[in-house]
Each structure stands twice: as structure tokens, then as C-alpha cells.
Design brief:
Helix content is 59%, strand content 8%. It is α/β, with parallel strands linked by helices. It has two domains: 10-395, no CATH class; 430-513, Transcription Regulator spoIIAA, CATH 3.30.750. The chain has a four-stranded mixed β-sheet with strand order 3-4-6-8, covered by helices on one side. The protein has a two-stranded antiparallel sheet with strand order 1-2. A two-stranded parallel sheet has the order 5-7.
Length: 534
């Protein structure tokens, strides 16, 4: 089954999922724009373009694109440095062009070099972050905007200190709405509800939001429970089409003479592309059908999306794991869900902003709390632990790094640990060494592994240095396909030094692994026979 699944067979699943993604994306688009220091409409524009444009051209079945929290600090600093938002939009357009070029030169292959332990760590870390960041909103404390995933928050607190600080600002009305929403969401997860076809047709998150609106309306009659505008979605309201169109901004291309535009575009390109490729890998791992996203096509779709977003006043776009995970967990089957969520964003901003501004943030917090828990279930930690230390350590470091810094820094820390483990393993197992005791002399048989690289220099040097005088050493490279020049140099130096220690050294096929030409390329022909092409 490929990404272009039959529309009629998946529409009922995609429609339900698109509503959930829309509800999740709406506050995130606004919150990320606020955290980025950009106009609120720029976040909505990015969400709409990410859904409709990127969703249409993407090859990802479950991925959802829009404004990303990982770019918020970059956007904020760039707008401040470039002074005018219209100048910043030029950098967004240029970043889109660079992403298009990356797609055509097949740079998407980078995605396949991320270890699965780090990807799983990213998913679990995002889940924990979502859960922790939504707790204050669930209790009615909304001073930090939705979508802010950084450790140090805009309100001066950090992720953990906020959990203590919020206790001074608990709003009983918001807390009740959170509990009602969670009750509905958990009920909709039970087998009882899923067996009733009529109830299963209604998305639980939509029902939770509707219940939240009704509760808020009832609470207006009780001063102690009443919710002010700070506790509700704050969508800009346009009273006419002209006013709606007046919220769009356009790039000022006179800024092309400013060198800072190009450095900003390059930074956006690198970070947006990395976040997209990481999200692609993570989303594919969550896909029950195990479809594989063509990463080069994804970069082209993201590039096109950023060009259009920049041209009409939107902030940068990436594929984002929060919305993609919500999409997958809600039962989406094809990319139509992402496209429809973008259409819903557009229609809601145009025609029903006043209705959407009745949605309590506490209801949306309930939805995101459930999503966060599903991404970081204890079973995931147990699964990674059972896979051994080599998988578990990068997994945990990625999570801790994300919690204490931000998404990309956490990923980098996880990658560093994963690479360190690989280097350590290379250090330990480039050869097998056997010791035999002969009459009056020790014999050491060293059998080199299939590939011996410069990473193995240290361990080989250490082992050779420990061989005592008056010994016999046999170095067997008969099974070695590749041996690095540096390793050969160590062995040759040892042979010279061995004479002074009365060490007898013999080598077997030592130079056959010194490849001067690439190994033959095996290619499967149309007739089904494997041939070798040199």
C-alpha cells in the first residue's frame, strides 16, 4: 500500500484525524508565532500553507507541516536583527529555494543516518515535553504561549519551575474543563465506545472541545468559575474580506542587498531541513503500514511551502512531530488528512474566528496531554531498555537533552552518544587475539576483522605494545576486505621495533585489504540475475 491510497477507502479515517490535527494545530500556530515575535497571522498562514501546499506535494503519508517550535528562537532573533518583518520574509523565500535545490541534489539521504535510538528518544522527549508544558494550561495558567518547547520560557520560568509557579494561579473553572475533557478522551479510548459505531464516528477530541465550550458558557454565570479571554483561544477576527486580506504581509526584495538576509536564509534552511528529516524518520516509525517517505521529495515540498509562505507573510515551515503524531494516533491513513486540516484552518480563520475564540485552552490542553502520554508511555522505555545499553543510553540522553535545552540540541547530544558508542565498539573489536604458550616463548595469533579502519588504530597499537619480548606474533588478514593505510603503518612500525625485542613477526595476506579500487558494484538486472558491474 503506497502513499497515494485510494481516496474513498480512507476519507472517513482521514476526515476524523484532520479535525483532531486542526484542533491541535490552531493554538500551536498562534503560540509559535507569538513566541517567534511575528504577527499572529503569520503563524496561521504557515499552518495553512503547511497543510494545503506541503501536504499536497509531500510524499509523506502521515506527516503534517506547519510552523515549528524549534525555529521560534531563530525567527525571533532574525526579525530583531533584520528590523523589519518584510525583510525577514525574503530570507524565508530564499530558504525555500535552497530547500528545493537540496531536494534536487538528493540531500534527503541525510535522514537515513539518524540512529533509531535517537529517533525514539526524540518521540519520547517530545511526548514528555508536551505533557509537562500542558500541565500549567490544564490548571489555568497561560502566561507561556502554546508551542513553546524550550527549557527557558518566555515568562522567565523553566519547564520544571513553572509546575511550582502555576500552583499560585490555579483557576477552578479551567481545571474542571480539563478534567471533563480528559474524562471524555479516556472514555473514547475504551473498547465499549469503540464497539458503538455511532459514537466511534465522533472524534473524542472534538467532543471534548465542544464540552469545554459548553462548560465555559455555563461558568459565565458563576464569577469564581468564569473564564476571561486569557483562558480562551485568541484568533484574530476579521470583520470583512478586505480586513482579512489586510493581515497578509509581503517580502521587501530590496533587502537582497543586505548580507544578513543570506546568512539568515542559510540558518533557516539547515535547521528547518534537519527538523523535517528528523520528523520524517520519526513519523515513518509510527506508521502502522511502515511506509517510507521519499525524503528528497519531502525537501522539495518543504521548499515550495516556504517559498509560498514567505511570499504571503508566513513564518518558516517544517514537518512537525507533534501534529504528525496527533495525525497518526487519530487514525489517519493518507496525506489527505494533512491537506484537510490546512483547509479547515483557512476556512475557520475566514468565516468562524469568533466561534473558535470560545474554545478554552484547558480543553486543548486535555487533548495534548493524552497525545504526550501516548508518545512517552512507560512501555516504550521498557522496550528500549530491553534492547541493551547501546540503544538505551542514546535514547535517554536525547530525552534529557531535549528537556533541559531544546529539540535540536537534544538530538545532537543523542547523536554524540550514539557515535561515541560506535567508536568505542570499533576500538574494542577490530581483531581477535589468541595467546598460546610454547616452550620458552609466547605465541600471539591476531586475526583482523573484515574492515579495519583508522578508528581501530588505538586499540591495535595498545595490543601490540603489550606483547612481551621473546614472543612470536602472527597477524592474519586473510579475511580482511579493507585495511586502512594508518593501520598498516602501525604494523610495519611494530615489525621494525619487534627486532629489538626479539619478537618474531609473520603476516598473512596483510596487503590484500589495501583497496586501491572500490569494491565491485552488484546490480540486479531485469532478467533477475545478479551481475557485477565494475
Amino acid at each position: 500500500m503506497d502513499n497515494q491510497t485510494n481516496f474513498l477507502s480512507t476519507i472517513k479515517y482521514d476526515f476524523k484525524a484532520s479535525i483532531v490535527v486542526f484542533l491541535v494545530a490552531l493554538p500551536l500556530c498562534l503560540g509559535i508565532a507569538l513566541a517567534s515575535g511575528a504577527p499572529l497571522y503569520s503563524g496561521l498562514i504557515a499552518g495553512i500553507v503547511g497543510g494545503i501546499v506541503v501536504g499536497s506535494f509531500s510524499g509523506s503519508a502521515l506527516g503534517v507541516s506547519g510552523p515549528a517550535a524549534g525555529l521560534a528562537v531563530i525567527v525571533l532573533n532574525s526579525i530583531t536583527e533584520l528590523v523589519q518583518f518584510e525583510y525577514f520574509l525574503v530570507a524565508v523565500v530564499l530558504a525555500g529555494v535552497l530547500q528545493l535545490i537540496m531536494g534536487f541534489v538528493r540531500a534527503g539521504i541525510i535522514a537515513h543516518y539518524f540512529p533509531s535510538s535517537v529517533i525514539h528518544g526524540m518521540l519520547a522527549g517530545i511526548g514528555i515535553l508536551i505533557f509537562l508544558k500542558q500541565i500549567p494550561h490544564a490548571f489555568g495558567y497561560n502566561h507561556d504561549p502554546e508551542g513553546d518547547l524550550s527549557f527557558i520560557q518566555m515568562d522567565g520560568h523553566n519547564t520544571f519551575s513553572e509546575l511550582i509557579n502555576m500552583l499560585n494561579f490555579i483557576h477552578p473553572g479551567a481545571l474542571i474543563i480539563t478534567l471533563v475533557s480528559l474524562g471524555i478522551l479516556l472514555l473514547w479510548e475504551t473498547k465499549l465506545v469503540k464497539k458503538i459505531s455511532l459514537l466511534s464516528l465522533v472524534p473524542g477530541p472534538l467532543l471534548a472541545v465542544v464540552a469545554g465550550i459548553i462548560c465555559a458558557m455555563v461558568f459565565n454565570n458563576y464569577p469564581s468559575l468564569s473564564l476571561g479571554t486569557d483562558y480562551l483561544v485568541a484568533l484574530p477576527v476579521a470583520t470583512s474580506m478586505n480586513e482579512f486580506l489586510g493581515n497578509f504581509s509581503f517580502p521587501d526584495f530590496t533587502a537582497l542587498s543586505n548580507p544578513k538576509i543570506y546568512s539568515t536564509a542559510l540558518i533557516i534552511t539547515v535547521v528547518a531541513s534537519l527538523e523535517t528529516l528528523l520528523s520524517v524518520e520519526a513519523t515513518d516509525k509510527q506508521d502502522p503500514l511502515k511506509r517510507v517517505t521519499p525524503t528528497n521529495k519531502e525537501l522539495k515540498a518543504q521548499g515550495l511551502g516556504n517559498i509560498i509562505s514567505g511570499l504571503i507573510g508566513g513564518i518558516p515551515i517544517t514537518q512537525v512531530i507533534v501534529r504528525s503524531s496527533a495525525n497518526q494516533q487519530s487514525g489517519a491513513r493518507s496525506k489527505m488528512s494533512a491537506v484537510m486540516h490546512g483547509i479547515f484552518l483557512l476556512l475557520s480563520v475566514m468565516f468562524i474566528p469568533a466561534l473558535l475564540n470560545m474554545i478554552p485552552l484547558a480543553s486543548l490542553a486535555g487533548v495534548l496531554l493524552v497525545i504526550g502520554f501516548k508518545l512517552a508511555k512507560p512501555a516504550i522505555f521498557m522496550k528500549m531498555y530491553r534492547q541493551g545499553k547501546r540503544q538505551f543510553f542514546p535514547f535517554v540522553v536525547t530525552i534529557i537533552g531535549m528537556l533541559l535545552t531544546d529539540l535540536l540540541t537534544g538530538i545532537v547530544l543523542g547523536l554524540v552518544v550514539a557515535v561515541f558508542i560506535i567508536l568505542r565498539n570499533n576500538y574494542k573489536i577490530p581483531f581477535r587475539m589468541q595467546k598460546e604458550n610454547l616452550v620458552g616463548k609466547h605465541k600471539f595469533n591476531i586475526v583482523l576483522s573484515q574492515d579495519v579502519t583508522f578508528l581501530n588504530k588505538a586499540s591495535i597499537q595498545k595490543s601490540l605494545d603489550q606483547i612481551p619480548a621473546e614472543s612470536h606474533v602472527s597477524i592474519d588478514a586473510s579475511n580482511t576486505h579493507f585495511i586502512h593505510h594508518d593501520v598498516l603503518e602501525i604494523i610495519e612500525d611494530f615489525k621494525v621495533h619487534a627486532k629489538s625485542q626479539n619478537i618474531e613477526v609473520t603476516t598473512i595476506d596483510l596487503y590484500q585489504g589495501l583497496q586501491k579500487e572500490p569494491l565491485p558494484h552488484y546490480k540486479l538486472k531485469n532478467n533477475g540475475k545478479t551481475t557485477i558491474e565494475k
